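TOKENISE THE FOLD
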Amino acid sequence: MVGFLARSLAGHDKGALYIIIEETDRYLLVADGALKTVENPKKKNRKHLQVIKIKNPTDTNEAIKHSIRNYRRNADV
């Protein structure tokens, strides 16, 4: 699932878009490129994320911000 876009379903960040940068058994590490960066990702429970099957780059914060911005623009979210 690394590289897929995901929407937060629960928590204070409900509705936020992230890109999955790492996964463990129970948790996913996600980044949005701005507040939660590749260097300091957010740890989210798998069941609190809705995975959107769109593959994106996960190497830089700029690439992540660009991918999220493009998704919002094209999906009219």
